[in-house]
Structure formats: C-alpha cells, structure tokens
TrEMBL record:
Keyword Cell membrane found: no
GO cellular component: chloroplast thylakoid membrane
Role: Seems to be required for the assembly of the photosystem I complex.
Gene Ontology annotations of biological process type: photosynthesis
Family: Belongs to the Ycf3 family.
Name recorded for this polypeptide: Photosystem I assembly protein Ycf3
Record-linked Pfam families: TPR_1
Amino acid sequence: MPRSQRNDNFIDKTFTIVADILLQIIPMASGEKKAFTYYRDGMSAQSEGEYAEALQNYYEAMRPEIDPYDRSYILYNIGLIHTSNGEHTKALEYYFQALERNPSLPQALNNTALICHYRGEQAIQQGDPEIAEACFDQAAEYWKQAIALAPSNYIEAQNRLKITGRFGE
C-alpha cells in the first residue's frame, strides 16, 4: 500500500485528499503525476523519520521528473536526509546538484553553509585553525548568498556573520 494511503493524522489525510484531487483535475503528463506521487510519499516518509523509504521514493520520483525546478527540490530533500544521517559529503553533492538546477534555493545554500561551519568547528577541535578559518570563510560565502535570496529567513546567520566580521566582505 502506498504511503499516501496510510496517513494516520488529520493533516496528512487532508493533504493527501487535496493532492489526489489536484492530480485528477490539473492537466499533467502521466510521468509528472507519477513523479509527484513518489515525491509526496517521500516527504511523508521523511517527516516520519523513515529515511530509507523516503530515499527510495525520491529516487523513483527522479526517474520521470524532467523539470529542473522540481528536480531541485527532490535533490534538496535527498541532501536533507544525508545531512540528518551525518553523511555530509553526500549531502553536499545533492545540495550542489539542486543548486545547479535552481540557483534560487536559499535553503540549500544555508545547509551547505551549516556543513561548512560544522567542518570548521571540527577543524578547531582537531587543532587545525587554518582549515577552520577556510571552512568558516566558505560558510560565510554560502550564507551571504542565502541571505541575498531570503533576507528575513536567516537572521541567526546574519548575526553570526556580523559578529565574526564576515558580513560586509
């Protein structure tokens, strides 16, 4: 049984019903409908912490999906799962792929910055301040791009950049 038919709470059930109605009334190619169904099931699984199932659905959604904008969100969500699993290198690969298809995806830029910042903190703990500084500089560049796209979304990042003197560079 598809995940979309197993929703337990009212909001998920309502979303599923509305999405199913939209799929029926909006003219779409069958591939687009199939991609959306897999994407929706992936989001549902991801929200419940069922990452393996979510990844499987996202990979299936990528097959029929040809629109670069829609693919960017699938790739972004795959990156989120890899981030949650601590697989930062894999996550970055997917964030970069998402940004190639949709450069106006501030959340991918923000998450890339967070990983760079985390790597900077790891470098400090390992006693390598030069690598740490390079990672922090790289994080700052990604945060600046995210902030330029969505200035009100990343207040904490703006404050961090101001405190460290990286905001105006």
